[in-house]
Amino acid sequence: MCTPSSLKVTLVLHLFCSATSSPPSQPPPSLSKAQVGSVERARCPLTLSPSSLVVRFEDPVQVNCSAPMKSFSLLGWEVPLLAPEPTMNSFLVWRVEHMTEWSISPMCYAVLDLEGPCHLHLPVLVYKPPDSVSLSFVNHTGSLLEHSHYTLRCTVHNVAPAGNLLVTFYRNQTQLAKRHSNVTEKTPVTEVFPLDIVAKREDDGADYWCEAELQLHPTGQQQRVAVTSEKVRTTVLFGPQLLCPAKLQVKMGESLHCDVRGNPEPSVIWLKDGRLVIPPVHSTRAHAGKYTVLATGLFGQTNVTVEVEVVTSRGITSTRRRHFLLATLLTLILNLI
Q1: Adjacent-strand bridge partners of 38
Q2: How many CA atoms lie within 13 A of 72 on its CB side?
Q3: Mean pLDDT, 10 residues at a time, over the chain (337 residues)?
Q4: Shortest CA distance to 192 belongs to which of 152, 232, 166, 156?
Q5: What is the per-residue DSSP string for 60-93?
Q6: For 25-53, b where at least 16 C-beta lie within 10 A, e where not — what string?
Q7: What kind and span of H or E run contains 37?
Q8: CA-CA distances (angstroms) from residue 267 to 90, 278, 294, 302, 307?
């Protein structure tokens, strides 16, 4: 009969007695090593609570390993960080005040009187949020030029594990792209993520920013750890643009103008019959005719020809009524054909 003098000796003697009392059973030749492992795990009745662990570096940890109320000789933890003494109780808690290991694989084991030894691994993910996240342009400062190519750089400082990192680029509230890290290092690293963009005039005054998120849910615990960069407001320089219709109808007494866009703001002149004129603030019938509007900016020049008609409010109403009647008449004719 094997009589242990201590808990640790119990495990050794149990294995020795088991080895000398009967030869170990061999799995059938048809079973692979993976299949044998799954059979052994299926026989292990241990329970871990929680079953997996997501813990911030230097935070406290507490995990309970328990065995069912049936005969077993020993219950213990195999872990390099403050492993508790094995026990013959039905549960054993592993706890530490500060998690100081970046890569750790704790294992709870038990020696069952009938089945023999078994063990259960605890999946652990140790993480650290970024110290900061910053966004900048690569080799460029100041304003952007329309149609030019630029590279944004999102830098995530001192984060772990980088393999769980997802970086998202934004323009205002619009997502531009997502980037994953390929780094497998478990300890903190600084990662840089690039994004190529083409400057557009519609982006003048837009805010660019990025967000670094540690995706920790693969271990079964839904939690979000994200840090955003400061916003970078952009100025896009572009040439002049005139928004004038070919035919412009103006009420008598109203001003004559066309929408002009450009950055920097372009200068605008009006020509009538080849002569420079000042657009009227209070239009009269004498201001009707063809005009050429010329806009000149830092990045080019553009012009449009506008035929101006000055009408009274009644005239506009009559014109709209005539258009409506003509459209109605055309519809009736098409229906009769």
Answers
A1: none
A2: 26
A3: 37 40 35 36 79 93 87 86 90 94 93 83 94 96 94 97 95 96 93 96 95 77 82 94 89 88 92 90 89 90 91 60 65 65
A4: 156
A5: -EEEEEE--SS-EEEEEEE-SSSPPPPBSSSEEE
A6: eeeeeeeeeeeeeeeeeeebebebeeeeb
A7: helix 33-43
A8: 86, 13, 8, 11, 21
Give the Cα separation of 267 and 289 in Å (integer).
22
Q: How far apart are CA 146 and CA 203, in angstroms?
A: 9
Give the strand order in the sheet containing 72-78. Answer: 72-78, 107-112, 116-121
Task: List Cβ<8 Å contacts ≥24 apart for 112-115.
Answer: 112/45, 112/70, 112/71, 112/72, 112/73, 113/71, 113/72, 113/73, 114/71, 115/43
DSSP β-ladder status, 144-145 and 236-243: parallel
CA 253 distance to own-chain centroid = 54
Per-residue pLDDT tens digits for 291-334? 999 999 888 899 999 999 999 865 544 555 666 666 666 666 66
Could you give the CA distance from residue 305 to residue 247 in angstroms, rounded to a whole number? 9
Say whether 170 sits in a helix, a strand or coil. strand
Alpha-carbon gap, residue 1 to 14, rounded angstroms: 10
Query: CA distances (Å), 218 to each of 58, 166, 208, 213, in order?
Result: 21, 13, 30, 14
Distances (CA, A) of 310 to 31, 255, 260: 95, 10, 21
Dist CA 284 CA 56 (whole Å): 76
In the chain, the amino acid numbered 195 is L
CB 159 within 8 A of CB 189: yes
Residue with tokens 């531009």: 176
Q: With H, G, I as helix, E, B as strand and everything else as coil, classify residue 326.
A: helix
